Amino acid sequence: MRHRSVLFLALLCIVILRLPAQQPLSEEEKRRAFLKAREEMTTIPYTPSGEPGSKPKPKPHATPIGEKPPPRATPAPVVRPTPESTPFPVPEVTPPPRPNIIVRESAVGRADEEREPTPKPQSAWSRLFGGSGGGTSYRYLTNAIRREIDRAPVARGRWRYIVVHNSGTRQGNAAAFEHYHRNVKRMVNGLAYHFVIGNGTSTRAGAIEIGNRWHRQIQGGHVHSDYLNNIAIGICLVGDFNVQHVGEAQKASLTELITYLRHRVGKIQGQPAEVRAHKNINPPQWPTDCPGNLFPYDWLARKF
Asked: If both were cysteines, with which of 2, 35, 173, 232 could 202 make a disulfide (CB 3.0 to 4.6 Å apart)?
């Protein structure tokens, strides 16, 4: 109220001073001037500091004597995202389905080549009495072995030769030769032959073992020629035929296996696959005595 009274008196003095000195105001004019000045008067809010519109400032806390004031908190820096660090949503892209392609080691026998037809299953009579349905009886080529041979996807015209080897050892089997070829000879596909025939030491005499190269229908590693390895099936007889003769069981098993394989791979230009001993087909620059000096070469030529 005191402030309003002071303000009112100041306004009244201003009004009186503006009036001409020679014409004093009457009481009625003074009253009207007072009412008009009061109507034009604006109320100013009261503040403790006495300054219009100012906000009260908090008093600082007194720090006890002998103590250091607490450190001021440092505001955390504002990290603004950059174009490299801004995570943009990446749409999930589903890769197209991969084509079903059979990968082979060589250009021979591609996946798009025509296959040799799988032989028809045997009749109950043939399975019971060991016949093949074609008048041939098997002793060593069991039903399980024939099924494994038939299951392989043989390309028509792929295999043109069947090559006979000896292991050069007195004993052994497919597993032992697999370990030697893969870990000692460093052959990435392991066992170099497609088939192994036992001699009665590590496996039964005449027992036929099928290698992974036949199952996968890939090139062999039994001849010193990449070209021949691509088109030649390798059969290894366990034994060293420089010091021992081929057993009758091995000869009978080899006869059954070669006969069945020639039928399985089909004919090339009307002729069955040629049967050769290793030394008779190896390139001249790589001479060898395999399958040994005591191997019956004449018998093999007459038989096939």
From this structure: 173
165 pairs with which residues across the strands? 236
Alpha carbon distance 114, 73 (integer Å): 82
Element at 30 (helix H, strand E): helix 27-40
Residue at 242: amino acid letter: N
- Given a contact cutoff of 8 angstroms between Cβ atoms, the answer to whether 47 and 54 are in contact is yes
CA nearest neighbour of 117 among 271, 266, 15, 274 = 266
Residue with tokens 């060293």: 240
pLDDT, tens digit, 9 for 90 and up, residues 223-258? 999 999 999 999 999 999 999 999 999 999 999 999
Alpha-carbon distance 198 to 193, whole Å? 13
User: What are the chain's domains?
Assistant: 1-13+27-42 (no CATH), 156-303 (3.40.80.10)
Using CA atoms, how far apart are residues 140 and 137, in angstroms rounded to an integer? 10
Degrees to nearest 5, angle at CA 297 with 293 and 299: 135
pTM equals 0.61
Residue length, the chain? 304
Q: Which two tokens stand for residue 40?
A: 């034009």
